[in-house]
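Researcher: Re-running this chain for the archive, since the previous output was lost when a drive failed. Same request as before.
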Amino acid sequence: MTCNHIVHVVHGLALSTSPRFTAAIAAHVDTSEPAPAHLEALADATWGDRNIYGILLTFGGGAILHQTKKLALVVDSSMEAEGIASCKAAESVSYAREILRAIGVHLDGPTLVGTDNLANMRVGSLRSAPSRARHFMRRYHVLLQRVASGEVALRHVGTEHMAADFLTKWLPKRKLDACVRYATNAWAHASA
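Model: Regenerated structure tokens:
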């Protein structure tokens, strides 16, 4: 599937209008373009020597929430760590959607929650059953309810385009710059 890469300028802000849902299990996020006008969340986690997760919520072309937090428990796999990050991102999306609804912003359809862990996406969006993950499946329960209600859509975002990576790990300068530009809508500042 091809998509037209268009950047619009709205009220002085450069905003991406590239389609996000390119297939049933993937979302197209391009960190070489500005963040979109609509609400979206990207979540990432690191486990092993550093058990942390990062969440990036964007709306109106830039970050409205970004956070890095230590996982409060020991996890057994990257899927489990990424699952916690996705659950926390979906929780933040619920709050943001409620605030936007209260101020009169109408949201069509579910909000993207992007993860770069394919196993996490498959289990968290009911695309496959966990085989060795039963011990932590209870944590997915609220995320699964949010997916089932149509509030969020958990989709895979390739690691090369995961804009929340800078919140959880050291990155090469080129990717770090792309992530920060995406989160801060630096395109608007460059064109001013």
